[in-house]
Design brief:
about 210 residues; alpha/beta; Metallo-beta-lactamase, Chain A
């Protein structure tokens, strides 16, 4: 069993919800995955927020387990890579009713964007062509919400070790580091969080970024 995690970002400009969970599902989905749900409203209430408080939704991608709660946020801007939305609308990709639901309000992005001061969307292709991550600069350092760019923190760490090896001139062969990983590393994150792993990645004090 793996977790399906969303994150609430508090900023002076308002609240950002990164991923909205698995939603209310369908019989076929439930029979296959057997999810144990926690209502989005309940999760937000525990964080001192309501659906009406959310100013922006950012989905790392539009598979049903990441955008299942989107219909509860009709009218709220949803920031999505244009290629991801086009793929979802083409069908055979996710649960169609989670995409163009009544009140859906998409703001399409092509590539990288600073959506609020100190808050960036960074394309992190791989799991899907339109996958994206959220970078948030805080007073005590930068946090990356990586979504499903990697399934596990250990995978992110392995790629980061390869990046460091290349930087330090280690002899080949070495694993190929995605260009987006280099971009995330330039933000010097103090923590990277994931959609399906409760573990967080933090930089190794012995090997600084």
């Amino acid at each position: 069993m793996e977790p399906v995690l969303g994150y609430l970002v508090r900023r002076g400009e308002g609240l950002i919800l990164f991923d909205t969970g698995i939603g209310d599902g369908e019989p076929e989905v439930d029979a296959w995955y057997r999810p144990r749900r926690r209502p989005l409203e309940e999760a937000l209430a525990d964080a001192g927020a309501t659906l009406a408080d959310i100013g922006l939704v950012v989905n790392c991608h539009l598979h049903f387990d990441h955008c299942g709660g989107n219909p509860l946020l009709a009218g709220t801007p949803i920031l999505v890579q244009a290629t991801e939305l086009a793929t979802a609308r083409a069908g055979d990709y996710t649960l169609d009713r989670l995409i163009d639901f009544p009140g859906a309000r998409y703001e399409e992005i092509d590539g990288e964007a600073e959506v609020w001061p100190g808050v960036w969307i960074i394309p992190t292709t791989g799991h899907t062509d339109g996958h994206q991550s959220l970078v948030v600069r805080l007073t005590d350092g930068t946090v990356v919400l990586a979504g499903q760019a990697h399934d596990f923190a250990s995978q992110y760490d392995a790629v980061d070790l390869a990046r460091r090896a290349v930087r330090d001139g280690a002899a080949p062969p070495l694993p190929v580091t995605p260009s987006w990983h280099e971009r995330l590393a330039r933000f010097d994150p103090r923590r990277v969080l994931f959609a399906h792993d409760r573990s967080a990645w933090e930089p190794d004090a012995i090997h600084p970024t």
